[in-house]
Amino acid sequence: MSDLTGNPLIQGLKTSGARITAQRIAICEWLTGNETHPTASDVYAALRADYPTMSLATVYNTLSALQDLHLISEAGKLPDGSTRYDPSADPHVNLICTACNRIYDLHDVDVDQLFTAAKADGFRIVNTIVSVYGICQDCQSEEEAHAER
């Protein structure tokens, strides 16, 4: 277990009055800095060996609590039906490949322009998820290779 004061997810849960358990700490630590946009099942699979009493429900409940606090966001529902979570609190765009379900973060976009336009229209922003669906370069190359055969 690391220093609890340095993890913004743990601090957010603590500030909200949520119970801080070893399992919740492990989930928060695993999510911090993670760029894979995991599903709840991914988080559970990564931690269950070290926390055999952790349930998938604990993971879902912790992810839900973190979402409610706007500390993480839902990256979107994918064509395969899974929900992927985005631990990055920095404003960015998610590029979601509909062929392989991979999610790429695009940080070189001025998302602040969206905020400015929304606020100018009198809109109070409470959460932001910007997702663009398409086909990634790897999947396009694979499609082209199959078409040439």
Q: Descriptors for this entry?
A:
three-stranded mixed beta sheet; two-stranded antiparallel sheet; 149 residues; single chain; alpha+beta; Arc Repressor Mutant, subunit A
Question: How would you portray this structure in words?
Answer:
A hairpin with a 5-residue loop joins β3 (93-97) and β4 (103-106). The model has no long low-confidence stretch (mean pLDDT 89). This protein is α+β, with helices and mostly antiparallel strands and 149 residues long. The chain has one domain (4-148): Arc Repressor Mutant, subunit A, CATH 1.10.10.10. 41% of the residues lie in helices and 15% in strands. The chain has helices at 8-16, 22-31, 40-47, 56-68, 112-120, 137-148, and strands at 73-77, 83-86, 93-97, 103-106, 130-134. The longest helix has 13 residues, at 56-68. The protein is flat and about 55 Å long. The strands form 2 sheets. Strands 4-3-5 form a 3-stranded mixed sheet, with no helix packed on it.
